[in-house]
Design brief:
- By secondary structure, the protein is an all-alpha fold.
- It contains 17 helices and two strands.
- A two-stranded antiparallel ribbon has the order 1-2.
- A hairpin with a 2-residue loop joins strand 1 and strand 2.
- Helix 9 packs parallel to helix 12 and helix 11 runs antiparallel to helix 13.
Amino acid sequence: MTRPRHLHPAQLIVLGFAGAVAAGTALLSLPAATVEHDRAPLLVALFTATSAVCVTGLTVVDTATYWSALGRAIILAGVQVGGLGILTLASLLVLSVSRRLNLRGALAAMAETRAVGVGEVRRVLLGVFALTLLVEAVTTLVLALRFATTYDEPPPRAVYLGLFHAVSAFNNAGFALWPDNLVRFVTDPVVSLAAAGATIVGGLGFPVLIEVVREWRVARTWSLHTRLTLSVSALLVVAGFLVVLAFEWTNPLTLQTLHGPGKLVAAFFTGVQPRTSGFNSLDVSAFREQTLLASDVLMFIGAGSAGTGGGVKVTTIAVLALAVWAEVRGDPDVQAFGRRIPYAAVRQALAVTVIALTAVLVATLVLVAVAPYGLARLLFEALSAFGTVGLSTGITAQLPVAGQLVLVTLMFLGRVGPITLGIALALREHGQLYRLPEERPIVG
């Protein structure tokens, strides 16, 4: 008899997300899921389900007018499942029934939540669940009160709108229930700041959030991961805000027509979204090329590890930047916040970045070959899909079938790719009993 083959945690993540996409596609294909009660085309259902489960927000049909209440509920469930993580949600269900996890289940949950050790998985999972409920509940309350008092929405609809957009914001999905997304709230500080705040919190990553909540009084004890994530995330938020403010201030199609405080609100909200939520309160198709290029960079970097956002992750870029700085200075070690970063982490960061960049470039090449649009717009769509952002210059629905399938692939790769690749690289580390003779090639 042969020993049963157990799936690698990275394989479990891929299969979990693929199963969720398949289930979402099947449910959205039901006639009751559309307003007209007609069966949605398979590509529309697949694209929307992938966008929901991979918390992206790209759409080929208008969410508010095409999908029925059932369809929107399916999308919201997909966003929540995709944001929490298939394995995290499954582990929470197991905990609620059996009050304990077996070793294999604990290892799988560690892969999804980045828990420090097997013994901490239960506590981390419960923390993830509690934080998710807390942030979404607070954001729902703020938005619901604003919709009811300022925009005269009936209380039940105000709560529904608040809940939908709170879940979408915290999970960095970017789905909205208005045809213009959140453009009508461009100068509303309550709606904009509540949505942006939930986006930022969800994008930090659950390990960071849990550590900050537990040890908020003793920041000096925070781990290197938490310090890097918080510092780089803050830097990118400020950079996004300043870029939008600088390049769109005199753009008559975006910020120029707004009053002073409104410009600041719109610029901050817009600068946050490439990190990787995808709401928009300004017309993305009207952005200047400088803003699009800066957004490309922010979308590729993405959010924090083990969070609801996508991209190659801020710590990945931070490690690479620190490695470059150490090389420029001639330092033998890569260091940050009084800690030495192991060489294996630098190699993993480099591998994740190069593989992700290759995937985006190949996908963009295919899009250029099949779609009648310029390189800047197609690259923006590709990075938005890979970064699970959801921002669009308005061409997603007009792409040919091949182009939309490319975006579907990128959304899936962007959600599970960096996670599974990082886990696979970490678990492949092994000792070596010998080292080959060293010889240095010419670099540069």
